[in-house]
Amino acid sequence: MNSAVIDKREKILKAALNLFTERGFHNTPTSLIAKEAGVATGTLFHHFKNKEELINRLYLDLKKQKMNALIEAVDETASLQEKLKSMWINGVQWGIMHPKEFQFVMQYSNSPFISHLTKEQAMGEYQSTFCLFEQAISDGLIKPAYPEFVADYFEGIFNLAVSHFRKYPEKISEENLDLAFDMCWNGIARVLES
Amino acid sequence: MNSAVIDKREKILKAALNLFTERGFHNTPTSLIAKEAGVATGTLFHHFKNKEELINRLYLDLKKQKMNALIEAVDETASLQEKLKSMWINGVQWGIMHPKEFQFVMQYSNSPFISHLTKEQAMGEYQSTFCLFEQAISDGLIKPAYPEFVADYFEGIFNLAVSHFRKYPEKISEENLDLAFDMCWNGIARVLES
Amino acid sequence: MNSAVIDKREKILKAALNLFTERGFHNTPTSLIAKEAGVATGTLFHHFKNKEELINRLYLDLKKQKMNALIEAVDETASLQEKLKSMWINGVQWGIMHPKEFQFVMQYSNSPFISHLTKEQAMGEYQSTFCLFEQAISDGLIKPAYPEFVADYFEGIFNLAVSHFRKYPEKISEENLDLAFDMCWNGIARVLES
Amino acid sequence: MNSAVIDKREKILKAALNLFTERGFHNTPTSLIAKEAGVATGTLFHHFKNKEELINRLYLDLKKQKMNALIEAVDETASLQEKLKSMWINGVQWGIMHPKEFQFVMQYSNSPFISHLTKEQAMGEYQSTFCLFEQAISDGLIKPAYPEFVADYFEGIFNLAVSHFRKYPEKISEENLDLAFDMCWNGIARVLES
DNA sequence: AATGAATGAGCATTCATTCAT
DNA sequence: CATGAATGAATGCTCATTCAT
Predict the structure, then answer these.
(1) Is the pLDDT of residue D156 over 70?
(2) Between A174-185 and B147-167, two packed helices, what is the crossing angle to 10 degrees?
(3) What pTM was estimated for this model as a whole?
(4) Strand F: which bases are under 7 Å from protein Cβ?
(5) Residues whose CB falls within 8 Å of the CB of residue A5, separated by 6 or more in sequence, listed in order
(6) Is the model's pLDDT at C158 over the cut of 80?
(7) Which residues of chain C make contact with D187, given a CB cutoff of 8 A?
(8) CA-CA distance, D55 to C4, in Å (whole number)?
(9) To the nearest whole angstrom, how far is the Cα of C73 from the nearest Cα of chain D?
């Protein structure tokens, strides 16, 4: 009983994810989502107050999944640089293996469809990661550029790398993932004077 | 009369740019564009076959403007690195001074609203720039990563930099522009062993 | 258990009365009635076949209450004029003390939501009162206008008086109730030549 | 051209009047109004911002018609009582000849569908009539009951009379109209002591 | 009896596009 | 070329009612 209920909710979210990434938010009728989910139109509105709540709910769920993927199995005893690299690799792999989820989160991060409140909630999950950058700067591990830029930069290249590997799947290899991280990192890292 | 005609066409394009960036394509009725442009609803369809043609036309115009801004006043006799830096700085400055135009081009570059044909035409403008990267790689000026990644990387960080400066306008300064380029470049540049 | 059942039924009727008078029939979802009654949506349909039956049932209940209020404690030995005045005063007082109930009965008396059958049943209760008018006419107590008009007139002014006192509660006083009846009555009563 | 435009607007208003009085506001889909008016659904919303504006517009139009009917051809030189009687007779005749219009105005006068603003505008038209009552009271022509009640009373019986004659059309005659007015009036008029 | 998730027909409203003037 | 009234398919959302538990 309960599982059937959750099932429908999940099916709606899944269908919404597929359709939103394929067709965009405004070009995806709720009726189509319901149809794709194998559910009546009214059912969608039983689970989500309206279309906007659906998209916000979806965004929050996926953002959380992404963040969980980042920190999964990161060796707590490793060095800061190694931690960041692990997270980067984890994240890129998650992005490659969950293309829709990744695209959705990236595409709607700056979208007006996502409410301010949702963005704040999502940002909360990000906080712990952000601390790592601050620490890396104070440790002298990375360039002393102001932290806002570092954060934008890091996430930007991260997204860029995933997008790239989705565009050229044949380029995916451990070597190229390392290369991508290296290009990112050597743009941040303090160049040690010899 | 002729100038009045051009006027209306321009006004429509201008209104469309403002509205598309503020509200998105699907959330911008043609009637609103017409109203904002001070023109009758029918007039829009005299100048553009339909809404899609309008957006494609707009995209192409702006992409061309952006490309022209890049190569403007680049010293032909300068070194390759200096040329690339000039273009970068030019581009970032254009992006800062034309926020709507920049956002529109970036936002819709990967959008399904832009037809394949339009994208190809736009890509044509990019060709000459792309050559510079190939040359830079073969010159040993930048890392021998495969050129597709370099191109994505370069453009990605470029967009990232502009977005960043739009988010934090108080950070705009010659110094920070240089810093941004430096962070980009030292992620690409071969690190010379001492 | 049985009392709990009755309780729910009563709660539904009570909630329906409040909501129907505040928002109208069509603007009151059954789900809202259920919610306001503290009951599941399905429960409403256990007690009433459908929304229409609910409203008809409610109408009949309230009409009966109103009629009972009219004849309550009327002195059987009093004169006809005194009886009618007692009923009038009783009725106005009931209307003042049961504003929702009064409004509902008045509002839906001519409404298509109330079925023909229901109206006839309700009219049955009215019959005995109607006889009084016929008698009053034949007694020469009131003007020899045809009885249909007298009945409409009497009830019309009655409703009017209640509505008036609900609009201006500060005007409620024994004196003004008498005044209202007097205005009603002297429009009916044969003016005796001196 | 212009006449065609007005035509459609008028047709919509007319269809709306018929349907609203027959089926009520909430039970009348805009699609049905459009259909009945021989017009596309969109056309309705071209002329009226939404359903609510349509009903408010309609109310205002009809209220104005009713008021105009009241004061039409009233002899300015006649006595106050004669003036009021003329208006009463005019009004009842208008109500009889325009049953839908009359019912609509009466039915929605106290309805929440009519906005406060609309009611105020409509009340404005009523002002001059209201003055007549004040004058009649100060002239000692009618009972010195407080004017709010007199106004409610007068209008109430007026509506009542029209409703009555619509229910019993066979009772319509000059004689009965006079009778109805007489019953109204002798409930107001000061009974002169002999 | 009671529950509340599910249903899907129905509704108000929007909007790209047309076309007579 | 320009206008803007008219169109009607499409869409987000509501709600009375059902039914498995």
Answers:
(1) yes
(2) 40
(3) 0.86
(4) 1-21
(5) none
(6) yes
(7) 157, 183-188
(8) 44
(9) 27
